[in-house]
């Protein structure tokens, strides 16, 4: 895979000081990967110079004079900063020079600019953010994660179609698609969820299995779980916080007294392995499904390892040619 991936090197809580080393590490992980770092060239070149062994034939710099703040209004980013690193990154995808892009910047601005620059695929009202959440049986593709706080039944249906295609691209055969709800009975849920269920029950070519509750998601009862962005974002952030809290509490308990430390000496290696498997950094990187191009959003506070994970997701989606696969399936199920 020798396609070029564009990186918003100025985005996120830590900016280029974290992103540049993470990108260089990704070049080592993928020997055929090419990256273009978009941002303030003098800053980026200075940071790259700290890594004299980097292959500059695979690492380019594209100057962009402006930066979109993490708390900046999307409308201002859209209208007032034509030379922002995020926008220049997206323009590289639109022109075809880059096959995908990754940003840890302002989520609202990234969504607004992605819609404006790349445009949705035919049949899609708005893109949805999706990520793979670890479950007892592997992973579940959860969407939307916050791009669309209020959703119609038709949009939830569109999310289900896109999530199913994304799961298929990851090798899942006939992905089980479910709607996240407060119960599994048909009478449960708000009006939008009930209407979406009716649409999905009539869909040909989707393996819709009905409603699933939050605990069912983690038991692996479905391969794709659909909800609006308000619910999805709260679920994801709560899950990340719970994993961290349980891990910290267990380590603290194993340090309480001699017997506990002795037990911990045996158990902690296994617990650390489990924490590594469930760590948010390993699963960082949410895709904006439904655009005419590949856009991956990294968590703004992600570590270097987490940003590498987001780049890894972009590499996979380029390899799987995900927008084209989506377009083909959407023609069958939506148009």
TrEMBL record:
Annotated signal sequence range: none
Catalyzed reactions: a fatty acyl-[ACP] + phosphate = an acyl phosphate + holo-[ACP]
EC class of the enzyme, as a word: transferase
Keyword terms of this UniProt record: Acyltransferase, Cytoplasm, Lipid biosynthesis, Lipid metabolism, Phospholipid biosynthesis, Phospholipid metabolism, Transferase
Entries under InterPro entries matching the protein: FA_synthesis, Phospholipid_synth_PlsX-like
Ranges annotated as spanning the membrane: none
Swiss-Prot/TrEMBL GO biological process terms: fatty acid biosynthetic process; phospholipid biosynthetic process
Gene Ontology CC terms: cytoplasm
Main location class: cytoplasm
SUPFAM superfamilies named in the record: Isocitrate/Isopropylmalate dehydrogenase-like
Enzyme Commission no: 2.3.1.274
Subcellular location: Cytoplasm
GO molecular function: phosphate:acyl-[acyl carrier protein] acyltransferase activity
Pathway(s) served: Lipid metabolism; phospholipid metabolism
Functional description taken from the UniProt entry: Catalyzes the reversible formation of acyl-phosphate (acyl-PO(4)) from acyl-[acyl-carrier-protein] (acyl-ACP). This enzyme utilizes acyl-ACP as fatty acyl donor, but not acyl-CoA.
NCBIfam families: plsX
Subunit (UniProt): Homodimer. Probably interacts with PlsY.
Similarity annotation: Belongs to the PlsX family.
Name of the protein described by the UniProt record: Phosphate acyltransferase
